[in-house]
């Protein structure tokens, strides 16, 4: 497995695990307890707090523990507005924020807030100028991510911060993808609230922090009430081991940040260099400065789901993991002018501290192979059919076995030429799938068959299954190849039923051509 | 040997739980929401743990929502139910944990009527008064704890469902202290929401759950991401979830043994304490958690006592760990009508599954020494 999904989550650093273990064993005291067990745990919590502060140029009292960046973002935005008692205040944010910010803003809109969602410029970032132009007299808060998690572009937060301070507008920055990657010095940059997370930086899941500036003081209404922990801003027993873990992770990041940034930038550029042997690909965010660890590329003519399926043992992401279950087209990619289809054919490679040059070389080769192969399958392809190479990484996404087998090792891809070939097509590029079936009859039955397909693995499997099933079949029996039969044979789930319908359409089109041979020309 | 008698504040992680967690701390590191193989493996273990919690508490897996702990679970329950509702009233037991009490009180600023429910001198809900309180105006939510964290007093919630549902309200039960110490069954109790915490049952800190009946609609506390059916955004804390699941399974399997073992220790301590003059045991006439004993030694300051005991290697608490250090006596004891002076002398002993009789002896010796040295 080549893991290139570090922007989604990172492996826990060995040193971090070692730092956590004592607090999962003897150091079990509650940090809020007044006895020795508690005091010892509290000391570990405070040591970690100082580490977080040190990495971002803050003071320890400015660090509030949370369960992760999602909570940090919620606390910052809701807490700031609630403290001001300004339910109908104006917020400026952008459309390329993490869901935690967008969903929070949408929630606040239902409570009366007005929100401006800025679109990124043509280079895929948000500029200071855009934000300043969106301000209104009642703007209470600007919330902007430092580094975009999908394409790695760096927004102009450093330019913007002093301008917002001058205007007395609270500035929240989601720095989840920036911290430990870029140098952050809050002693110099007047950001008021800043969210960070541990598990994107080789720390444990389930812990994060919010920087809350003391001078001038950013005030928040708590979003989790209770025992009054964390200066009353966030109640709940502190998970000592998690906090010791984030502290160590941030300490390590401070030690290796400069070196990591140089190395990752070189690897990232090498990956892009290698991929460029493929025609018709686009580097997303090419014209903006980008964080060292993220490379996002769109591949024309290679359907996204099939591309990911083929790269099973190369773990990459298509956009943010948080939204991949819902498969919403990426806003940032659309802003760059990629249509929904091309946005869907985009991969985010995110590199990490353990990524090697060999892994980059191998991953590039695998992607090149996969894209070339999928393009060669396509009905629009002029290439001759290449040999099947799909599925080197195995069935990583859990497709039904009959689908996976036919998708990963099709044997009927190609073209038939010459007299008496019947060619039928079904589906539409708009539906992101297209199937071409060709048959040649001999002695009253199908003697030769070939297909080409563009679409998800199920669509390709349908083409292969139909081609195999048509061999030796008399035209009178073609009608038996119905959508329900295709679904049954391939165990196609409900949400892919349209692939079976496309198959049925193609077979019916063949039958129509047979009965009206004049159409075949 | 240090003696740890503060198991209601937090428990020592069970080595069996740690063993179950380790592969998910150091091993497959998928984000459980990612679709690739690592992510899918993480998703599977999260669902296994959900089933373990459900089995432990008598709920459906679909009713289990992960949170960062008991405090967040209580916040999610109270705010989640009231967020989009037309404000009416929220009632809570006067001895509730601050996570319930402070959350309930915060709803006042959103237009809700918020009222405590009175208890008697032994910490038990005054049911007749409560029934009358329910009737006098519309109520949306009632929050009652199954067992108190300081006194260990158990509320008999057998009729609570009928009363609360009769008033057209939802019943939320904070079972953070009760779960794993006495039988707690969500569906049998008929409540609508229930909070659980992992680190009180020998699981890891930083994870808990809110059980929400499928009939109750709640709004999220943390927006962002589709995790937990959209009710709780944020990347799943996979290792902690796995640990909580295993801790719950062990708590279910070992409940009877743990109860018998801690109860024996408490009875020994209680009968010995009764021989000391000037001792008051709180909630003495009530049914209490088998592991919990809160008392005051008249004329002594609880905080000072616990510091002196700590110096002798014995960890106890004056009350809730959250409220510790502010010098104020426990709202629980004051709510029971205990005098300010007496409440300030409170010491809570909470036993765990690994405590021994020898440790009780050690505690008694130390307590007598501290008391005499004054």
From TrEMBL, chain A:
Domain (Aminotransferase class V) ranges: 2-361
Catalytic activity of the protein: (sulfur carrier)-H + L-cysteine = (sulfur carrier)-SH + L-alanine
Cofactor entry: pyridoxal 5'-phosphate
GO biological process, one term: iron-sulfur cluster assembly
UniProt EC number: 2.8.1.7
InterPro entries xrefs: Aminotrans_V_dom (IPR000192), Aminotrans_V_PyrdxlP_BS (IPR020578), NIF_FeS_clus_asmbl_NifU_N (IPR002871), PyrdxlP-dep_Trfase (IPR015424), PyrdxlP-dep_Trfase_major (IPR015421), PyrdxlP-dep_Trfase_small (IPR015422)
Domain NIF system FeS cluster assembly NifU N-terminal: 399-512
Pfam families linked: Aminotran_5, NifU_N
Molecular-function GO terms, alphabetical: 2 iron, 2 sulfur cluster binding; cysteine desulfurase activity; iron ion binding
Keyword annotations of the record: 2Fe-2S, Iron, Iron-sulfur, Metal-binding, Pyridoxal phosphate, Transferase
Family named by the database record: Belongs to the class-V pyridoxal-phosphate-dependent aminotransferase family. NifS/IscS subfamily.
Protein name in the entry: cysteine desulfurase
Organism per entry: Stenotrophobium rhamnosiphilum
UniProtKB/TrEMBL annotation, chain B:
Name recorded for this polypeptide: cysteine desulfurase
MF terms (GO), sorted A to Z: cysteine desulfurase activity; iron-sulfur cluster binding; metal ion binding
Domain Aminotransferase class V: 3-363
PANTHER family in the cross-refs: CYSTEINE DESULFURASE, CYSTEINE DESULFURYLASE FAMILY MEMBER
EC number: 2.8.1.7
InterPro entries in UniProt: Aminotrans_V_dom (IPR000192), Aminotrans_V_PyrdxlP_BS (IPR020578), Cysteine_dSase (IPR016454), PyrdxlP-dep_Trfase (IPR015424), PyrdxlP-dep_Trfase_major (IPR015421), PyrdxlP-dep_Trfase_small (IPR015422)
Cofactor: pyridoxal 5'-phosphate
SUPFAM superfamilies listed in its UniProt record: PLP-dependent transferases
Keyword Thylakoid found: no
Organism this protein belongs to: Stenotrophobium rhamnosiphilum
């Amino acid at each position: 497995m080549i893991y290139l999904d570090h922007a989604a989550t990172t492996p826990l650093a060995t040193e971090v695990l070692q730092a956590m273990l004592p607090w999962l064993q003897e150091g079990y005291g509650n940090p809020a307890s007044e006895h020795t067990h508690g005091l010892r745990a509290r000391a570990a919590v405070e040591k970690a707090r100082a580490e977080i502060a040190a990495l971002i140029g803050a003071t320890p009292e400015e660090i509030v523990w949370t369960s992760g960046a999602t909570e940090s973002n919620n606390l910052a935005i809701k807490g700031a507005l609630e403290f001001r008692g300004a339910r109908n205040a104006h917020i400026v944010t952008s459309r390329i924020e993490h869901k935690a910010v967008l969903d929070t803003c949408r929630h606040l809109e239902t409570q009366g807030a007005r929100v401006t969602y800025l679109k990124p410029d043509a280079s895929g970032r948000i500029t200071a100028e855009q934000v300043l132009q969106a301000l209104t007299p009642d703007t209470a808060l600007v919330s902007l991510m430092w580094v975009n998690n999908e394409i790695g572009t760096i927004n102009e937060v450093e330019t913007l911060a002093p301008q917002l301070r001058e205007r007395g507008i609270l500035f929240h920055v989601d720095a989840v993808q920036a911290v430990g990657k870029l140098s952050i010095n809050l002693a110099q940059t007047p950001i008021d609230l800043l969210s960070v997370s541990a598990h994107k930086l080789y720390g444990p899941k389930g812990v994060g922090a919010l920087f809350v500036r003391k001078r001038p003081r950013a005030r928040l209404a708590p979003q989790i009430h209770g025992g009054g922990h964390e200066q009353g801003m966030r109640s709940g027993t502190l998970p000592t081991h998690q906090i010791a873990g984030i502290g160590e992770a941030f300490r390590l990041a401070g030690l290796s940040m400069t070196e990591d940034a140089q190395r990752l930038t070189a690897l990232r550029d090498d990956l892009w260099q290698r991929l460029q042997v493929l025609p018709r690909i686009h580097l997303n965010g090419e014209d903006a400065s980008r964080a060292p660890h993220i490379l996002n590329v769109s591949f024309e003519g290679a359907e996204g789901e099939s591309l990911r399926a083929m790269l099973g043992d190369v773990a990459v992401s298509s956009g943010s993991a948080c939204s991949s279950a819902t498969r919403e087209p990426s806003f940032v990619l659309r802003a760059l002018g990629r249509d929904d289809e091309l946005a869907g054919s985009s991969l985010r490679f995110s590199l990490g501290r353990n990524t090697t040059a060999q892994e980059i070389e191998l991953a590039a080769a695998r992607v090149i192979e996969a894209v070339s192969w999928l393009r060669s399958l396509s009905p629009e392809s002029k290439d001759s059919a290449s040999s099947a190479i799909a599925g080197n990484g195995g069935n990583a996404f859990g497709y039904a076995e009959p689908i996976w087998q036919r998708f990963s090792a099709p044997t009927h891809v190609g073209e038939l030429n010459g007299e008496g070939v019947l060619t039928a097509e079904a589906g539409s590029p708009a539906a992101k799938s297209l199937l071409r079936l060709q048959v040649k009859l001999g002695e009253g039955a199908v003697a030769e068959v070939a297909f080409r397909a563009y679409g998800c693995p199920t669509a390709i499997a349908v083409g292969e299954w139909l081609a195999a099933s048509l061999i030796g079949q008399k035209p009178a029996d073609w009608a038996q190849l119905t959508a329900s039969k295709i679904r049954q044979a391939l165990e196609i789930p409900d949400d892919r039923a349209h692939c079976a319908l496309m198959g049925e359409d193609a077979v019916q089109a063949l039958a129509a051509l047979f009965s009206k041979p004049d159409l075949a020309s | 040997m240090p003696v740890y008698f503060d198991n209601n504040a937090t428990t020592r992680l069970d080595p069996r739980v740690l063993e179950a967690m380790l592969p998910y701390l150091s091993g497959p590191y998928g984000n459980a929401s990612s679709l690739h193989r690592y992510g899918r493996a993480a998703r599977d273990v999260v669902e296994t743990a959900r089933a373990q919690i459900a089995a432990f508490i008598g709920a459906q897996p679909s009713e289990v929502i992960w949170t960062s702990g008991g405090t967040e679970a209580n916040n999610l329950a109270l705010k989640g139910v009231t967020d989009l509702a037309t404000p009416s009233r929220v009632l809570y037991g006067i001895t509730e944990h601050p996570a319930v009490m402070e959350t309930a009180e915060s709803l006042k600023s959103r237009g809700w009527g918020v009222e405590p429910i009175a208890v008697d001198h032994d910490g038990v809900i005054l049911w007749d008064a409560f029934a009358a309180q329910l009737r006098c105006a519309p109520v949306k939510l009632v929050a009652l704890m199954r067992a108190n964290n300081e006194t260990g007093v158990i509320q008999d919630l057998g009729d609570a469902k009928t009363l609360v549902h009769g008033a057209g309200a939802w019943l939320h039960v904070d079972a953070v202290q009760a779960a794993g110490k006495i039988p707690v069954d969500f569906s049998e109790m008929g409540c609508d929401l229930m909070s659980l915490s992992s680190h009180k049952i020998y699981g890891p800190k930083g994870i808990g759950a809110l059980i929400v009946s499928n009939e109750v609609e709640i709004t999220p506390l943390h927006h962002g991401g589709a995790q937990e059916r959209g009710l709780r955004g944020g990347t799943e804390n996979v290792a902690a979830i796995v640990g909580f699941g295993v801790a719950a399974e062990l708590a279910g399997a070992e409940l009877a043994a743990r109860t018998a073992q801690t109860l024996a220790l408490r009875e020994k301590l209680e009968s010995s304490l009764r021989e000391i003059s000037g001792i008051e045991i709180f909630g003495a006439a009530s049914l209490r958690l088998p592991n919990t004993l809160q008392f005051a030694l008249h004329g002594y300051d609880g905080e000072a006592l616990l510091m002196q005991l700590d110096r002798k290697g014995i960890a106890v608490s004056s009350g809730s760990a959250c409220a510790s250090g502010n010098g104020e006596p426990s709202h629980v004891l004051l709510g029971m009508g205990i005098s300010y002076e007496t409440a300030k002398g409170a010491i809570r002993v909470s036993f765990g599954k690994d405590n021994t009789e020898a440790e009780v002896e050690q505690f008694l010796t130390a307590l007598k020494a501290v008391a005499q040295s004054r």
